[in-house]
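User: I'm writing a tutorial on reading structure tokens. Could you give me a worked example: one chain, its sequence, then its tokens, then a sentence or two explaining what the tokens reveal?
Assistant: Sure. Here is the example chain.
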Amino acid sequence: MKALLLAAALLAVAHGATAQTAPSAAEVAAYDGLHRAAYLGDLDAIRSLIAAGADLDARDDNGRTPAHVAAFASNDAALEVLAARGADMNALDNQVYDVLTIAAVANDPDLVSLALRLGNRPDLITSIYDGTALIAAAHLGHQDVVRRLIAGGAPLDHVNNLGWTALIEAVILGDGGPDHIETVRALVEAGADRTLTDRDGVTPLQHAEARGYDKIAAILRAG
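And here are its predicted structure tokens:
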């Protein structure tokens, strides 16, 4: 089991090595058109640019559309205008992230709910790990986001290319604290499959027990 814990720790480091990249200060300074208006939340400029024929889904050097930029800046109103005018809410940037996963990682529950309402698919495969917004949120212990994604129809038992589900990630990449406890509770109560194992055949319960996460282990036993 110690070897499995070490392997999981190494994978966790790798998992965080390609995190989302928000626009840098230099990129923001260089933005013009819809990207700049979306970042600033300038709704009048967004409407004027669209009316003048601006490309709703234009890409910056990292493949970010104006919708991605609005999400990184938490400009909900800008995102609403872009979506209403036909922006692709399921576009993926160069790191394979969409608006919904950006909101989930940022722990922005209201933006998560908005993205779902505007047509962002909760089952979209995102990140180089072939994950989902739910897996990303569970990994980080963003319990409110997790509950909103579940309510929005996110697949509970999607397995990413590391062989992990949202439930497994909440245990092996979590800290066992209150947020990850509630994340596990939300997933179990929603019906996540507690019997799905990682590639080594280890269940979420076994991982929780190995880490001394007693409260999480109790939820997994009782679920």
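What the tokens reveal: The chain has 14 helices and no strands. Residues 1-14 have pLDDT under 50 and may be disordered.
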